[in-house]
Design a protein that fits this description.
The chain has 9 helices and 5 strands. By secondary structure, the protein is of the alpha+beta class. The radius of gyration is 23 Å and the shape is elongated. It starts with a helix and ends with a helix.
């Protein structure tokens, strides 16, 4: 058996910091090719100001140096923003379990598991119903088990990496959810599962 596996070497704090910087720099170089997700909005960057400062600090970049990079090397600044955005998205997507997408006549509910996504789709068969309103949601509750609502349950294995597939659903208009509506409807339509 491999000697390194039997006696693993634990890196010192300094070695770990050095390796982290190398990984982030490699990641930045990879970002030149293409981002995995999309860049955070200005508002999202503002909300994550402290996290971004910590991200820069892991690369030994303080505020003065960051201001200099922005002014003198805007392409490097852009790359740093992209790398940070992908890191944030990766963390969020990894923790995402439920998504919802509401439109006028449809409600799409998703449960994002490790290897597959399960879905419940509710479709109002009465065109005047609008699920985007409180009245439409009240109508849905009253008519859930009538012929006025078509319910489809499905599942699909991810065709791409899980987080990329979840991100694609978000790009199509879904939002993060606590899963309460999915769970309630799932328990009603298939209580034994």
């Amino acid at each position: 058996m491999n000697e390194k596996l039997l006696n693993p070497v634990v890196p010192t704090q300094e070695e770990f910091h050095h390796e982290s910087k190398k990984i982030i720099k490699i990641s930045a170089i990879q970002q030149l090719k293409k981002m995995k997700y999309t860049r955070l909005t200005k508002e999202q960057f503002e909300a994550l100001h402290q996290e971004f400062a910590n991200f820069l600090a892991t690369q030994s970049i303080d505020k003065k140096e960051w201001d200099s990079i922005k002014a003198n090397k805007p392409e490097v600044a852009e790359q740093e923003l992209d790398v940070f955005s992908d890191l944030i998205w990766e963390g969020v997507l990894t923790q995402t379990n439920y998504l919802e997408h509401f439109s006028k006549n449809h409600i799409f509910l998703f449960h994002c598991l490790e290897t597959e996504v399960k879905s419940i789709v509710l479709k109002a068969l009465e065109p005047e119903v609008d699920f985007m309103t409180a009245n439409g949601l009240e109508w849905m509750v009253k008519n859930l088990f009538t012929d006025a609502i078509d319910i489809h349950v499905g599942r699909k294995d991810y065709q791409a990496e899980r987080n990329v597939a979840v991100f694609d659903i978000i790009q199509q208009g879904a939002i993060l959810s606590d899963g309460q509506l999915y769970t309630q409807i799932h328990n009603i339509i298939s209580p034994a599962s």
